[in-house]
Structures are given as C-alpha cells and as structure tokens.
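Retro notes, structure queue

What went well: the backlog is down to a handful. What didn't: a couple of records were mislabeled last round, so from now on we paste the full input next to the output in the thread. Example, using Possible subunit of benzoyl-CoA reductase/2-hydroxyglutaryl-CoA dehydratase from Thermobrachium celere DSM 8682:
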Amino acid sequence: MKKIGITTTVPQEVLIAAGYKVIDLNNIFVTSNSYMEYIDIAEKDGFPKSMCAWIKGLYGVCVKEGIEEVVGVIEGDCSNTRALVEVLRLKGIMVYPFAYPNSHRLEDVKKSLDDFMYIFNVKKSDVEDVRSRLNKVRELLIEVDNLTVEGYATGFENHLYLVSSSDFNGDYIEFEAMLRQKIKEIKERERREYDVKLAYIGVPPMMGDIYDYMESIGAKIVYNEVQREFSFPRFKENKDIYDQYYDYTYPYDIEFRLKEIKKQIKERKIDGVIHYTQAFCYRGIEDIIVKSKLDVPVINIEGDKLNELDARTKLRLEAFVDMLKDRKGWRR
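Corresponding output:
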C-alpha cells in the first residue's frame, strides 16, 4: 500500500478511498526517541533557528524517513506550511495541497473537498463509505473521552488516543482493535477524582509529560480541545463529508473554536484552562482573545524544542493549580 504523509488532520477518508496508508508526520516526529535529529536535519538544510520546531520536525521526518508523497494544508493551519511544501517540492517530494477556506462558508468547504477528491480520482460515494467505517472507530474515541471525564481514563490516555485519530496510526482496523482492548482495561479500574479539572486548548503539546505532572499535583486535564477535534466527535450530527469538515473547529477562526470550548467547559465543570502555544507561532497572539472571552482562569504556556516540562513551567503550573484550589475553597 502506498504511504502518504500529512502535515495536520486532512480528509483522510479521501486518501484511504484512494488506496493510501495515511501517516501523520507530527506523530512520527513527537514520539521519536531521537526527535531532535529531525530538527537538526532541517536546520542543517537552512531552516532558521527562529522557526517553529514542528515545521522543522515535519521536514526532517520527510527527509529521514523517505516520505515520497505529502498532503500540505496551505490554508487553515500553520502559516509556515506554504513555505514548507515549496521546500519539499525542491527535494523531489510530491506535494498535494489542501485548504480549509478562511471564509468558512459551506460552499467553499465543499469546493475544497471536491477538488481534493478530483486530485485523487475518487467519488464522493466511495468517500462516504470510508467515512461510515471510520465513524465506528470514532465511536470508541468518544467512549474514551467520556471515560476520562468519569474518572477512569487518564488525561494522557485521552490525549494519546484522540491525537492518534489524525491518522489512526496508519491502520484504522488495528487501531480499532487496540482501542476495544484498552477500553475494556480502563473500565476495570477504580474511579479516581481530582481536586481540579482542567481544559487543555491549543495545538497538541511537545511535552507529553504535562498530563502525568498535572495529576501528580492534584489536577486532571479532562478536555483536550484540538485532539478531540481530530476525532470528529460530532460526526453523528454531520450528514456528509462536507458537513463534517465544515463543523471541524480547529482550522477556522478563534471565535468559532471558542463556541465549542465554552460548551465543553460548562459541561465538564472545568475549573481552569491551560492554553498551549508553540514558540514563533502566530497563534500565540490568540491568547489575548482567549483570556478575554473565557469565564474561567487561563494560563498560557509556550513550548519550543523540549519534549518535557522545564522547571519554570512546572512552577507556574503548580502555582496555577494552587490558585484554582484556593478559588474553589473560597467559593465553598
């Protein structure tokens, strides 16, 4: 089966219908024991140090792992991706563009998807067949998400399985079997309560240890915004592939994202929000809007190249949790 890399979540239903094995380059990069090697490859080839580590990591993965075909999201994601795909083309990699239109009009989303289907020579009926099959896996991801809120699954498990739904680890059948087994294991645990419930919003973190660390200081992340969006949790409300990618919040403006974030904060009884941004990313500016629009305390943390929390960030997070505990006590 042909492999194709993706720079972020794209309509993988189209790619699977076209006979591809989909590989999220981000997941290869961030889970590698030698992730810095990917960054080094990019910097040796001329990528500036003052550029997002994710972009450099994606490039390094393509070069080192011999990725020959890539879908690059040129609208609705990282503003540096357009330049990245140009460099990938220079390296002889076949790049297919996809865009989440800034207009966020259904007719524009439909055109973008139709163009994508045309590129890969697949019919909408074939894409809908794949979507129906993937939705069975997404049903399990909703269950994992619910088990997190109920106190059985950990915050890291929530992050890991939801973020993996961007490509279903390259094989949705194996991923489904693994999820069924994991859910069975999770349900057999004793329920654990935490003093503070947190939301994590923004791009998935470079530092995966943030989840265990928060639980070690009496707080649990029970809502992962973007990771959850990767799983398309409202698929039952979406009548077709067009509706699904129109409803997907991450690529569109912050006001659209905040509607779902506010809903989840209320439903999950969230005490505070961790807003993660990546160094040198324009999304850091959105923190101004996030803090002005949300009714719960927000802390902004920034990641760069490190794949674990540094001492300063741990101290800030601990102080934030202490403040939330005091706030809850004062309310009582």
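Agreed that this is the format going forward. Reviewer comment attached to the example: The first strand starts at residue 2 and ends at 6.
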